From TrEMBL:
<comment type="similarity">
    <text>Belongs to the shikimate kinase family.</text>
</comment>
<keyword id="KW-0170">Cobalt</keyword>
<feature type="binding site">
    <location>
        <position position="361"/>
    </location>
    <ligand>
        <name>Zn(2+)</name>
    </ligand>
</feature>
<feature type="domain" description="3-dehydroquinate synthase N-terminal">
    <location>
        <begin position="244"/>
        <end position="355"/>
    </location>
</feature>
<feature type="domain" description="3-dehydroquinate synthase C-terminal">
    <location>
        <begin position="358"/>
        <end position="509"/>
    </location>
</feature>
<keyword id="KW-0520">NAD</keyword>
<protein>
    <recommendedName>
        <fullName>Multifunctional fusion protein</fullName>
        <ecNumber>2.7.1.71</ecNumber>
        <ecNumber>4.2.3.4</ecNumber>
    </recommendedName>
</protein>
<comment type="subunit">
    <text>Monomer.</text>
</comment>
<dbReference type="Pfam" id="PF01202">
    <property type="entry name" value="SKI"/>
</dbReference>
<keyword id="KW-0067">ATP-binding</keyword>
<keyword id="KW-0547">Nucleotide-binding</keyword>
<keyword id="KW-0808">Transferase</keyword>
<feature type="binding site">
    <location>
        <position position="40"/>
    </location>
    <ligand>
        <name>substrate</name>
    </ligand>
</feature>
<dbReference type="GO" id="GO:0005524">
    <property type="term" value="F:ATP binding"/>
</dbReference>
<feature type="binding site">
    <location>
        <position position="319"/>
    </location>
    <ligand>
        <name>NAD(+)</name>
    </ligand>
</feature>
<feature type="binding site">
    <location>
        <position position="128"/>
    </location>
    <ligand>
        <name>ATP</name>
    </ligand>
</feature>
<feature type="binding site">
    <location>
        <position position="449"/>
    </location>
    <ligand>
        <name>Zn(2+)</name>
    </ligand>
</feature>
């Protein structure tokens, strides 16, 4: 959408006659302070007569030509909200124009009203030539059967308004417009989108598609209310849903738990065309992805992360897995999701300490790739540290957090797109994790992952400083930034020998040689550190002990 001198609509609304496109479109435009255009009104203005008059005088093909020309023009010169007439998207020229608009970053929103309600509304209003001549309800239904699959295909945003007032429907549309989308293109797997915003979960059915009949909805108990919402959306869309509750947090990331889920899938007749939806923190989405990767050698899955850490990191990138007695994430696979729906409304129930933990991975992405993240963290450290889910939604802090999530997911997408199976570049996402995973293991997983990574980054910074790759100021900056966010920067829970033994089982290690990723010169400049001197490895450990 960068072509000079042109403007494009913020969104285009399509839907059946009577779906409420004009009514809802006007509400949204008021809420967002945007201009609104209705294609039918613009056409009447242009041709100087009503649409029924134009139809009866010149016929439908002539009308469709006027309509598609006007739509093409408006898509290139109008910067507000644009609602199309009911039949407009059926014209091939309009479909092409909408496809170009989407390619340039546009949103075509299919307003999916309850067919019965929309039909009654359309027939009450009159002035609709497509319903003239006989049983209007039967005509509306016939048109619906023809148009619904086409609208479904050409729209890139779907909003179900069943049972909603126009105001409620408008809010849903507005949330979709304000949504942030990060595209993850992976060389050896299908591309997918990470959708971030209030109501992102509403994309569940379109992302899953119409192949699955059954969905395994895998979640933990603390996120029951969010999985209830997912279940309702899935059932409304006609899927058979198996609700599968797994043990919370790291206790859920075991092969024993995965085996229990496989048994359920077997008993309930899950086939290769069925799918998994994971709802919860990173532990739940890691396990859900692992089950999807392994059931019948791989079925479709969608992640709905509900913790900050899962939104910014765990749900995206396709690392799925379980822990073993020997350590963290030792059994798993690289298996990409079909989509990630980071619904910001779920953060309303997130406890403060689990939100703060997630900031560890956000800061990591700032250090390895996007210094703007560090700037935002510094500027908003007090508000972020004081996060309170109960009062969070709708505040300026929500925009700050959405920006941080989008930026962090972009960093992740950049690394996994180029190196899904972690041959080199992707290892930079592991900044702070060699020591972080050792701390988690030593603490029997009672330490939260993001907290352990925060200490692990201080360790990596100390090591880099000892070996002359960064200066002391940057090490101090690690400590001061992380502490200002409420994250720990030291650990004193075990001996160097025990920690070293665990670090030797890190997935980056090769043979008997340790491999770290460290900063080289400053934020955004990363290097691999192979087999560093043993005394530096130990000295850096002592420096994080206090
Ligand atoms: N696959 C990856 O690339 C990747 C990346 C980073 C982390 N991880 C993994 O993710 C896990 C850490 O994720 P996490 O920090 O989300 O921890 P977690 O999954 O253990 O969740 C923390 C706690 O918060 C609860 N919770 C989550 N969302 C909630 C909500 N909205 N409301 C109320 N409670 C909620 C969970 O049920 C749990 O009790 C670790 O296992 C880590 O190894 C994986
Ligand atoms: O996606 C990656 O690659 C990462 O390393 C992201 C990490 O933040 C994440 O904690 C990941 O689960 C660690 O993977 P592991 O392979 O070191 O177990």
């Amino acid at each position: 959408m960068s072509d000079a001198g042109m403007q494009h609509p913020v969104a285009v609304i399509i839907g059946m006659m009577g779906a409420g496109k004009t009514r809802v479109g006007r509400e949204v435009s008021q809420m967002m302070g945007l201009p609104f255009k209705d294609a039918d009104i613009e056409i009447e203005r242009e041709v100087g007569m009503t649409i029924p008059e134009y139809f009866s005088r010149y016929g439908e093909p002539a009308f469709r030509k006027v309509e598609s020309d006007l739509i093409r023009r408006t898509l290139d010169e109008f910067g507000g909200l644009f609602a199309l007439g009911g039949g407009a998207p059926m014209t091939p020229a309009t479909q092409d124009a909408l496809a170009d608009y989407i390619d340039g970053g546009g949103r075509v929103i299919y307003l999916q009203a309850d067919p019965k309600e929309a039909m009654e509304r359309a027939n009450r209003g009159g002035g609709r030539p497509m319903l003239d001549g006989g049983d209007a309800n039967a005509r509306w239904m016939r048109l619906y059967e023809q148009r619904d699959p086409v609208f479904d295909r050409i729209a890139n945003v779907h909003v179900r308004t069943h049972g909603s007032t126009p105001q409620m429907a408008a809010r849903k549309v507005m949330n979709m417009i304000e949504e942030r989308v990060v595209h993850v293109g992976v060389v050896s797997a299908d591309d997918y989108n990470v959708r971030i915003g209030e109501g992102a979960m509403n994309h569940l059915a379109p992302v899953l598609g119409d192949k699955p009949a059954r969905i395994a909805l895998i979640h933990t108990q603390p996120v029951q209310r969010h999985s209830d919402r997912a279940r309702a959306l899935l059932r409304q869309a006609g899927y058979e849903v198996s609700d599968i509750v797994i043990p919370d947090a790291e206790a859920g990331k075991t092969v024993t738990v995965a085996n229990g889920v496989w048994e359920r899938l077997g008993a309930e007749g899950f086939t290769r065309s069925d799918a998994v939806v994971g709802v919860g923190g990173g532990a739940a989405t890691d396990l859900a992805g692992f089950v999807a990767a392994t059931w019948m050698r791989g079925i479709r899955y969608v992640n709905c992360p509900t913790s900050l850490l899962a939104m910014v990191d765990a749900s995206t990138g396709g690392k799925t897995g379980t822990n073993t007695a020997a350590g963290k994430n030792l059994v798993g696979s690289f298996y990409t999701p079909a989509g990630v729906l980071a619904d910001m409304t779920t953060l309303a129930s997130l406890p403060n300490d689990i939100f703060v933990e997630g900031l560890g991975e956000v800061a990591k992405s700032g250090f390895i790739s996007d210094p703007e993240i560090l700037r935002i963290l510094e500027e908003h450290a007090d508000e972020l540290r004081g996060f309170d889910g109960a009062t969070f939604l709708g505040t300026p802090l929500e925009d700050v957090v959405a920006e941080l999530i989008e930026r962090t997911v972009r960093v992740k997408a950049k690394h996994v797109s180029a190196d899904l199976k972690e041959a080199g570049l992707r290892e930079f996402l592991n900044y702070g994790h060699t020591m972080g995973h050792a701390i988690e293991k030593m603490e029997h997983f009672r330490w939260r992952h993001g907290n352990a990574v925060a200490v692990g980054m201080v360790y990596a910074a100390e090591l880099a400083c000892l070996l002359g790759h960064i200066d002391r100021d940057l090490v101090d900056y690690h400590r001061s930034l992380l502490a200002s966010l409420g994250l720990p920067t030291s650990w004193n829970g075990g001996s160097f020998e025990d920690v070293l033994a665990i670090m030797h089982r890190d997935k980056k290690a090769r043979g008997n040689k340790l491999r770290f990723v460290v900063l080289d010169g400053g934020p955004g400049r990363m290097m691999h550190l192979d087999d560093p001197p043993a005394d530096a490895v130990e000295e850096a450990f002592h420096r994080i002990q206090h």
